[in-house]
Amino acid sequence: MTGVAVEGSRPYAWPFDGALPPERTALLVAGADAAWRARCADPVPVDRMIAALAEPLRRAGVLIVAVRCAAPGGREIPVGDSGPEADLRITAAGVDGFCGSPLDGALRAAGRDRLALCGYGLEGPVHSTLRSANDRGYECLLLTDACAELEPDLREAAIETITMSGGIFGAVAPSAAFLDAVAPGSEL
User: Class of 22-182 per CATH?
Assistant: First the structure.
């Protein structure tokens, strides 16, 4: 089954070619550890949204990836994961989920080049991982309602940075629109 472009994504119809096969798609939960979750302003609604997305996406064939990210300054990651039951758990050496981790190789080996990103620390792990994924050639979509921000005042700026210059880092959309494109008939 091949999904279609995500309704209402901006600044362009995501993915750019309108093809969204679940077997090429991954839900990437950045900052999926207790330390980043604890730093977020209001992680509870994001916990619920990510949990609601994970199972219908998995059933549709989307790979669920949780990435634990090091704290600023390279401090060790405290024990404890956040996020959904994942098909793949990765530990990164930095705030960017690709830093010192097997994430790129694991995604490529699984044939996943369409990434829907969400998680904890919108302006930290989520944004850093998204920008790095974009630089590596992945087609990126930020799920706006599945990201917990560190500073509420920075939320909208972090989202708009992705869409500037015609989508320099990718596109953004609400989770329901992504779920409808990949797994029609599923509900949050």
Answer: alpha beta
